Amino acid sequence: MNIDSQLKLQAYLDGELKAGQTRQVAEWLDKDPEARALFAELQHTTTIMTGNEPPVKLPVPGEFFWARIEREITARPSPRPRYSWAQWWRVLLPLGAVGLLVALLLPRDAAPGKASSVATLKGMEVETYLPNSQVITFRSESEGVSFVWVDTR
Amino acid sequence: MADRASVKDMSKESEQSTLSDEALVREAQGGGLNAFEELVARHRDKVYARAFTMLHSEDEAVDLSQEAWVKAWQRLNQFQGDSSFVTWITRIVINLCLDQLRKQKRQRTESIEQLDDEAGGVERQMPIVTPNPTERLEREELRQRIDRALGQLSTEHRTVLVLHEFEELEYKEIAKVMGCSIGTVMSRLFYARRRMASLMAGVKREEPT
Question: Quick one: pLDDT at residue B117?
Fold first, then answer.
């Protein structure tokens, strides 16, 4: 019997064969006493091991065992609390409502040079910290750039 | 005041001992160290046992099982509950043991045993063992003999046998955990079983009465 046949026999025992192969091996087992003997040996080993894992107990007292674990984990940061979607919604919903309210109440356009120090220009934000001064900062979020223009005239 | 605090602690402890693993995991994920301690108390023997069966060294098994618990704490938020908590922590300790065995393997020179393992080995030529129907062992004695026999296997054979027979993993799962092909798993399992059969020759499983 070659090694491939032996491994096939084992796979049959472990239920790892496809239906067609299972039938073939079953027929082979019926005809071949050597295959049956090897199968019986493999099956016997599996049978005596199943449910008979040697009982092993921790050889140190539980308190000592835990003490080292505790020391290690308290020396490092604890796991970040996990948030569920429900928890996120509880935070995001009121914030969204407030944001919407603010957006509705604020004037849509603020002309440069008027009372407001913030103006919107084609989606870009132009901000003058001192309306009557010659210093203007310009920030484009989409481009990720900022300019500071200083007019000394 | 101190009495009241200790009574409160005790009642919290007893409350935790009645909670399910899932509930304790949720508490621990929120940073609850007491809940995590309860999980350790519940499963420390099982986790240690897996490490010991794989390594056959008490000291290493204690060290690695403690390391597994520390890792579990650090990765607790990755636990999604797809499997049970005990399965999850057992996988962590198995991976640590495999890393340890790989380290040891790199350190030692290639042994004859290792050559046998990959090339076919003496187990292939071994005569088939016929179970002796007259010998019956008490369960305790049977377990001791299994333990002794496992101790005589190579680490590769022992690992694959433990993962298949005790952890009940399928071939492909073992291959994934051990980082080898399914073919290698099959041949290692085959030789491990044959070697166990010869080491346990004459043992008949006690029938339930």
Answer: 52
